[in-house]
Amino acid sequence: MTEGVTGAVTGPAPTVVVAGGGTAGHIEPAMALADAVKRLRPDATVVALGTPKGLENELIPPRGYQLELIPPVPLPRKPTTDLLRLPLKVRDSVRQAREIFDRVGADVVVGFGGYVSLPAYLAARGRVPIVVHEANQSPGLANRVGARFAKRVAVAVPDTPLPKAEVIGIPLRRSITSLDRAALRAEARKHFDLDPDAPTLLVFGGSQGARSINNAVSGAAKELADAGIGVLHAHGPKNTLVVQEFPGRPPYVPVPYLERMDLAYAAADMVLCRSGAMTAAEVSAVGLPAVFVPLPIGNGEQTTNARPAVDAGAALLVEDANLNPAKVAELVIPRLTDADRLAKMSAAAVGMGHREADEVLAKIVLEAAK
Fold this sequence. Notes:
Shape: elongated
Structural class: alpha/beta
Radius of gyration: 21 Å
Order of helices and strands: EHEHEHHEHEHEEHHEHHEEHEHEHEHHH
Helix content: 40-55%
Strand order of the largest sheet: 3-2-1-4-5-6-7
Largest sheet: 7 strands, parallel
Distance between the termini: 7 Å
């Protein structure tokens, strides 16, 4: 294969399998990579690997990519000898993944961690080149296993403890990395029925919502309204949110899910949210000041994800246990009502991320597919 004028690898049309199901944090970078592969190699075939109950069933088919399903494999928190024994459920998932790779003619398998990546790595080992992408500084079990026999290992941040790690950032959608918030502001405010001029807080807690965030922000609705602040609040499809109306104030707009995150970011002047790796990268890429509320479970990776923006002065960090309506009002109101303060935080955020990570990873993947 040779290098084309765009920098993409040329030659026979490759088939790329992306394994990134389960949560939006795994799916979105996989889809950003898929889009970048298609930009560099329009003749390429991209197939997504997922599980029957994962969020990928809602997010991937509308993006135009073929989705193949295998049984999920629950992952223990630490490597054990049980992985080497391959229990029946793991063997079944590996067998089905291998059949899919053979049927679609996989030239490379790209894993982003999670339930679907481990069987994908085990099925590809010794048969199809593997590329691993790790978004967190503390890798999950699937990627720790996959990295042992991967051809290339890409990571989002320095000091990620994986062999052969190359720091590239997190692949983000072009609708995010090319977003002009100011140009889209009026359209975005109209789309969500927000006040066209009021300072606006965007609130979300991941694809499924977060009860602590929902309760704290909705409990501060009156204080936010009295301060002239509008709110766009994605509370999660399985959660309900009751917000008292305050006539004559900027609207508080609750929605179950944000399908147009680009418009949500454009409508906002500040965001209060979790600090998953994907979210932290997107918020920095679009230059939004943030209040990050790390998920209180896990190995602390969400606090680690938020730290660069906090250290740069682009974000604040509040522990989940300390989040309540009074804390929301204390942190949000003085900043959202001070244009100079907001502008400084926004400027600190811009430039922190790797805006070309999608195409950098796509070139790595196409090279591995040779």
